[in-house]
Structures are given as structure tokens and as C-alpha cells.
Design brief:
Layout lengths: L2 H14 L3 H6 L15 H9 L5 H8 L4 H10 L10 H6 L4 H10 L7 H8 L6 H13 L8 H13 L5 H16 L3 H11 L6 H13 L5
Helix pairs in contact: 3-5, 4-5, 5-7, 7-9, 8-9, 9-11, 10-11, 11-12, 11-13
Length: 220
């Protein structure tokens, strides 16, 4: 079956699961989708995983302006084929925070090239969506690296200091990543606490202080 036929069949399955109430209640940051059936994430994941792994088909779906197809692409993609030459393709296709979160959950956290992806997407030039996506990928990675703590804290500080409207979202991503790293062992926990201690008192920075205070408290 060619890609168009497969996409049409998958789109039909999504259409049967459409839910206007879910679509109306969605909250995400960034651009809107061209078409949104409001399929719940658990249902979307089930239908997408039934397609199996097919990286080329995933790339094809990712180019469509339909929420469900774009999100499904992350579940159908082959993490082993997401090499540095593909970072631009997947990064350019990110529309909003929902895509960043689902991409991290389904694919980005499992790529073998995560260290290179982190270096490419944590920079100021990468933009807040890529930064948020890679922070969430770090939060879900099997072995998040302690050397990622400094760049995460630095980028959050820059966003907060610049008054970036999405700095609160980056703060959430930073907390998720820092807790994942700091929870691995006592040395990591102390490294995270020292780095976070360099943050100021802007709202996004205060959020990180407050969250880490109890989430990385050894007494909890």
C-alpha cells in the first residue's frame, strides 16, 4: 500500500474517533494545527502504534497539516534513524508545545543521538520550542547526563531575563529535566541544586526554585 492510501486509512480511523469536546479543551502554546479532530492522546497512540515502525512513512505524515497525523509520526518514526542530518526536519515541523511533549515522549527521548540533539536544540538560536522539546526528552531519557544541567539552567535564565512569554513553559521543562538528572544519585542532586542556586528571582526562576525544593528534597 502506498503512503497516500495508508495515510487515508489512518485518517479515516482518526476521523471515527473525533471528539470536539477534547479539541475545544486543548491548551498548548505555539501555532494552531490546520485540522484537528480532537482525538485523545491514548487513542491516538494506540492507532499510531498499530502502524508499526516506518520512518519514511512517519516523515510523510509529519508534513501533513493535521494534528493527529503529525503526532502519529513521532510514534511511527524509527529513533535509530533520527540522525543529526534529520534534526532540522523534525525541529522545523514543531508547531506547538503539544508536539514538543509528544515528540519527546514517543521518539526524541529514545534516539541514540540525544547528546547531539541536546547540543543542537538547547542553544538560544534554536528557539523555545526546540529547547522545550529537548528538555522534555532529557526528562524521559534512560540515562540523562549531568553535564546537561548547566546549559538547561543557562537557557532558562536567558529566557526569563529576556521576558520571553514562554519562559514559564521552559521552566516546566527545566524542572522535569533537572529532576530526572538529580534523582539519579546524590552527586547529581547536589550538582542540580548548585546550578539552580545561580538562578535569580524572576517568576520562571522562582518556579524552578520552588519545585526543586521539594522534588529533590532528600527528606521527601
Amino acid at each position: 500500500m502506498d503512503f497516500i492510501s495508508r495515510m487515508t486509512a489512518l485518517l479515516g480511523a482518526f476521523r471515527r474517533e473525533r471528539n470536539g469536546a477534547v479539541a475545544d479543551s486543548m491548551r498548548y502554546y505555539g501555532r494552531n494545527y490546520g485540522l484537528n479532530y480532537g482525538v485523545s492522546l491514548p487513542t491516538l497512540r494506540r492507532l499510531a502504534r498499530a502502524e508499526g515502525t516506518d520512518h519514511d512513512f512517519a516523515r510523510y505524515l509529519y508534513l501533513q497539516d493535521v494534528r493527529e497525523l503529525r503526532l502519529a509520526a513521532f510514534h511511527i518514526a524509527d529513533p535509530d534513524r533520527l540522525t543529526p542530518d534529520e534534526f532540522g526536519f523534525w525541529g522545523d515541523g514543531l508547531l506547538n508545545s503539544e508536539m514538543a511533549e509528544e515528540g519527546a515522549f514517543a521518539c526524541l527521548s529514545r534516539v541514540r543521538t540525544l547528546p547531539a540533539l541536546f547540543d543542537a536544540w538547547i542553544t538560544a538560536d534554536a528557539g523555545w520550542l526546540r529547547q522545550y522539546a529537548v528538555m522534555m526528552a532529557v526528562a524521559r531519557a534512560a540515562e540523562p547526563r549531568v553535564e546537561w544541567v548547566g546549559p538547561i539552567v543557562d537557557q532558562l535564565h536567558r529566557a526569563a531575563e529576556a521576558g520571553l512569554p514562554e519562559s514559564h513553559l521552559l521552566a516546566q521543562g527545566a524542572v522535569a529535566a533537572l529532576v530526572a538528572i538529580g534523582s539519579r544519585n546524590e552527586e547529581n542532586r547536589q550538582t542540580v541544586q548548585r546550578a539552580a542556586g545561580s538562578l535569580g528571582s524572576l517568576p520562571a526562576e522562582d518556579f524552578v526554585h520552588e519545585e526543586l525544593a521539594w522534588r529533590l528534597d532528600p527528606q521527601c
